[in-house]
Design a protein that fits this description.
Blueprint: H1 8-57, E1 69-76, E2 79-87, E3 99-108, E4 111-121
Antiparallel strand pairs: 1-2, 2-3, 3-4
């Protein structure tokens, strides 16, 4: 007598193996999506900080504050970043009226995504 078709037990085993493989792939793609989203947020924070610095770049450093922090909202890629620029945190670089030490921090949803420091000086 020849057996034709697939038994219920074989079907259950093959479906179980298929489900295990599918769950592994789904878990991996979920991790990839989280990493990709975080990467986009960090890239946006860098761009937002750059935009804030570009606006300040055209000002004479002597007209910039010598202390304090100014917060601005910058829209990048549909995300709204809070960019906080602090002035003269390192007073060594603010000894002259023609230069300012700037620290910019970019926040997205109250989480700090990026920080950068620079010194603006008046070039002649």
């Amino acid at each position: 007598m020849s057996q034709r078709g697939v038994s219920i037990m074989e079907s259950l085993v093959s479906m179980s193996i298929f489900m295990i493989v599918t769950m592994g792939i789904a878990g991996g793609s979920s991790s990839f999506m989280k990493f990709n989203t975080l990467s986009e947020q960090k890239s946006g924070a860098v761009a937002a900080t750059q935009q804030a610095f570009d606006k300040l770049r055209f000002q004479d450093p002597s007209t910039l504050p010598t202390s304090g922090t100014i917060s601005t909202s910058v829209l990048v890629g549909g995300r709204n970043y809070d960019v906080r620029v602090s002035y003269c945190e390192n007073s060594l670089y603010c000894a002259s009226f023609s230069q300012r030490h700037l620290t910019a921090r970019a926040y997205y949803r109250n989480s700090k995504m990026y920080q950068v420091e620079t010194v603006y000086a008046l070039l002649k």
